[in-house]
UniProtKB/TrEMBL annotation:
<dbReference type="InterPro" id="IPR020630">
    <property type="entry name" value="THF_DH/CycHdrlase_cat_dom"/>
</dbReference>
<comment type="subunit">
    <text>Homodimer.</text>
</comment>
<dbReference type="InterPro" id="IPR000672">
    <property type="entry name" value="THF_DH/CycHdrlase"/>
</dbReference>
<dbReference type="GO" id="GO:0005829">
    <property type="term" value="C:cytosol"/>
</dbReference>
<keyword id="KW-0486">Methionine biosynthesis</keyword>
<dbReference type="InterPro" id="IPR046346">
    <property type="entry name" value="Aminoacid_DH-like_N_sf"/>
</dbReference>
<keyword id="KW-0368">Histidine biosynthesis</keyword>
<dbReference type="GO" id="GO:0009086">
    <property type="term" value="P:methionine biosynthetic process"/>
</dbReference>
<feature type="domain" description="Tetrahydrofolate dehydrogenase/cyclohydrolase catalytic">
    <location>
        <begin position="6"/>
        <end position="121"/>
    </location>
</feature>
<keyword id="KW-0560">Oxidoreductase</keyword>
<dbReference type="GO" id="GO:0004477">
    <property type="term" value="F:methenyltetrahydrofolate cyclohydrolase activity"/>
</dbReference>
<dbReference type="GO" id="GO:0035999">
    <property type="term" value="P:tetrahydrofolate interconversion"/>
</dbReference>
<comment type="similarity">
    <text>Belongs to the tetrahydrofolate dehydrogenase/cyclohydrolase family.</text>
</comment>
<dbReference type="GO" id="GO:0006164">
    <property type="term" value="P:purine nucleotide biosynthetic process"/>
</dbReference>
<dbReference type="InterPro" id="IPR020631">
    <property type="entry name" value="THF_DH/CycHdrlase_NAD-bd_dom"/>
</dbReference>
<dbReference type="GO" id="GO:0000105">
    <property type="term" value="P:L-histidine biosynthetic process"/>
</dbReference>
<dbReference type="Pfam" id="PF02882">
    <property type="entry name" value="THF_DHG_CYH_C"/>
</dbReference>
Amino acid sequence: MPALVLDGKVLAKSREQQLKTVIDQLVSEGGRKPALATILVGDDPSSATYVQMKINACGRVGMGSQSIAMPASTSTEELLAEIHRLNNDPKVNGILLQHPVPDQIDERACFDAIALEKDVDGVTTQGFGRMAMGEHAFGSATPAGIMTLLKHYDIVIEGKHAVVVGRSPILGKPMAAMLLNANATVTLCHSRTIDLATLVRQADIVVGAVGQPELIKAEWIKDGAVVIDAGYHEGGIGDIEKTGLESRVSALTPVPGGVGPMTINTLISQTLESVQRNLM
């Protein structure tokens, strides 16, 4: 039986329609249009493309956006000043600092300067801590999007053994915490894990989040597993080798069109939630 395709592109499109309905109603009742501020430091073309995709998504749902472009020579202090300005701007409901920033900038200090209530990309240390402890915080956009995708397709998480390959603070680590909070048994691995293949073979749910093309081999994945690939590399290749998996696993995400659209959808959804929480 062919694997169930966890289609993030289709789900994101459906959720955008729902978001647009809510935003239109909010504005028609006299509320301010939600707005996301994006900060791009430098001229990396891939980062510029990702930021534009997020701005386009805002437009599709009727959400406002501010686009701030800063030169590659920007200092940590200059970036912090811009973040503080946006924190204090009542017209801004969410702040996205596009990763990565140039090497001379203290990225973690800048992430942590984002006000918790505007941290709609889920990048602050405080937000991560609250999420890991089961308290409210905006989750890191990619793992939170994956959780939404799993829920939509009724993928059972409770009691399952999930193996997350990748330990970045905005993907692998929060992914492991979210799965643990959903009552999975979680093993967190990375590129230096000894005998990675053996650990992956034990997984009911495999999440590729290591940022290396096809590091996780298809032969490592057991029949019936759920395969989530959060990687994207040139040529439409993910972190997980897909050869033959379609006929063996129970469900899998396509690359592209699986996790990526849900990342952007989560970002704009959490920006709307920021507005709604302020109205409570």
